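Subject: design request, 165 residues
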């Protein structure tokens, strides 16, 4: 596992995880960046065929113009103060992405800080949860050899780095 600060769409991995909305509509932040880099129309057509995705779940599309093979669309929770099941829903996103990666036999995956942008999940709470869920899946055996936590800036990366030290 490693932490990278930068553009998730430029990473050389087999899976790019998208912090998606329930409609898979391509929004702002990492979702918008992934849609633009993958090819907005192609990706939207694939997403429309899926018919959306519930919070806490993950669905897959081809990666189109990205160097990755797949995009995993993970719908994280909107932060409502922590008492509305947000932790379980966010954990489910990471867990499901790891299980799906193993099922597809991929060796590398890059995660953004799911729900930490416009959905408002505090990064200092999300990072330990993300690392815990990923490590738990790796400990159970996995095809994954390289997991990247791709952070938008150094502040968010600062929550992940001590956890991987």
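Subject: RE: design request

Done. Sequence follows.
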């Amino acid at each position: 596992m490693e932490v990278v600060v930068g553009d998730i769409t430029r990473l050389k991995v087999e899976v790019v995880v998208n912090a998606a909305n329930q409609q898979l509509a391509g929004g702002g932040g990492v979702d918008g960046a992934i849609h633009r880099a993958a090819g907005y129309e192609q990706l939207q057509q694939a997403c429309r065929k899926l018919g959306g995705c519930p919070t806490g779940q993950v669905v897959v599309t081809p990666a189109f113009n990205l160097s990755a093979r797949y995009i995993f669309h993970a719908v994280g929770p909107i932060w409502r103060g922590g008492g509305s099941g947000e932790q379980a829903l966010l954990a489910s996103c990471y867990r499901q992405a790891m299980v799906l990666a193993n099922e597809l036999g991929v060796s590398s995956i890059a995660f953004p800080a799911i729900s930490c942008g416009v959905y408002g999940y505090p990064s200092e709470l999300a990072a330990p949860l993300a690392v815990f869920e990923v490590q738990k899946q790796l400990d159970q055996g996995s095809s994954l050899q390289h997991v990247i936590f791709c952070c938008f800036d150094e502040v968010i990366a600062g929550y992940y780095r001590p956890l991987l030290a």
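Residues 86-104 form the longest helix (19 residues).
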